[in-house]
Design goal:
This protein is α/β, with parallel strands linked by helices. It has a single domain, classed as Histone deacetylase domain (Arginase, Chain A). The protein is about 45% helix and about 10% strand. The protein is built from ten helices and eight strands. It has an eight-stranded parallel sheet, with helices on both faces. Helix 1 links the parallel strand 1 and strand 2.
Length: about 300
């Protein structure tokens, strides 16, 4: 068995000119993993659309219905930051199905990756910061509803605080939220995660990795999760337009290896999502997103051997 990876062609939704770029990265990531021999076709699993009932395990009926039917008011749409279309609704929902499937595969095989996901700025009744529905929260609730897990740990290393996720689980001891993010960055108003580690602007590779090592092993021992969701955002990169940290490609890869080896060696299954990343050059951005898949592939092979 090879590393399970989740991809669906509907991750790429046609959008008006000026908005195509962020969607094209999903298809290009799939192609790059094949081109570079990181994965082969048989490793890819195809997600299904989740029911509205599953999405409403986290989000309000009024918000889900309004978004899916295209009746969301203009202010709410502007807060999301993406132009509404039926294709985007479908892409959004399929990506949620992708994270649910990734989590199921992680429970089965110990490690799995989604080629999308990480929409951590979505709140129960509204979307924000390019995030419409919160796939991490929905997948956590689905696994719990199916009695597949009880305790969940969300490790969010996107450069922006996972404010929506923190808010959703703020009074829920069954899901532990850990966010390590740039302090002076979006969102302006932070929520309270179970553990927030705000980082100074300009932090580089070694200091970042030392900081992560200070928290993650102890966190695993304390929480003892049935599954770890890992948001492997690449916006901490020095070249990211919205990041403000200074990690290199090597630093991002070392970070991903550190998270995955620490979790897998301790026996905790990990479901990876790609999180945020913002760059002017598509190929550069896609390569950064591929780093978590490259790391996961190495860890999976080592685990299998």
């Amino acid at each position: 068995m090879d590393l399970p990876i989740v991809y669906h062609s509907d991750y790429v939704a046609p959008l008006p000119d000026g908005h195509r770029f962020p969607m094209e990265k999903f298809r290009r990531l799939y192609e790059l993993l094949l081109e570079d021999g990181v994965a082969h076709h048989k490793q890819f699993h195809t997600p299904k659309l989740p029911s509205q009932e599953l999405i409403e395990l986290v989000h309000t009926n009024s918000y889900v219905t309004a978004y899916c039917q295209g009746t969301l008011d203009l202010q709410a749409q502007r807060r999301i930051g993406l132009p509404w279309s039926p294709e985007l609704v479908n892409r959004t929902c399929v990506a949620i199905g992708g994270t649910i499937l990734t989590a199921s595969l992680a429970l089965q095989f110990g490690l799995a990756c989604n080629t999308a996901g990480g929409t951590h700025h979505a709140f129960p009744s509204y979307g924000s910061g390019f995030c419409i529905f919160n796939d991490l929260a929905i997948a956590s609730r689905v696994l719990q509803k199916l009695n597949l897990v009880q305790k969940v740990l969300i490790v969010d290393l996107d450069v922006h605080q996972g404010d929506g996720t923190a808010f959703i689980f703020q009074d829920d001891d069954s899901v532990f939220t850990f966010s390590m993010h740039c302090d002076v960055n979006f969102p302006g108003t932070k929520q309270k995660s179970d553990l927030d580690v705000p980082l100074p602007v300009g932090m580089e590779d070694d200091e970042y990795l030392r900081t992560l090592a200070t928290y993650l092993p102890d966190l695993l021992s304390e929480v003892k999760p049935d599954i770890v969701f890992y948001d492997a955002g690449v916006d901490p990169h020095i070249g990211d337009k919205l990041g403000k940290l200074a990690l290199t490609d090597t630093g991002i890869f070392r970070r991903d290896m550190q998270v995955l080896t620490t979790c897998v060696a301790a026996g905790y299954p990990v479901a990876c999502v790609i999180g945020g990343g913002y760059a002017d050059d598509l190929n550069t951005l896609v390569y950064r997103h591929s780093l978590v898949h490259r790391a996961a592939n190495e860890v999976f092979i080592s685990k299998r051997c």
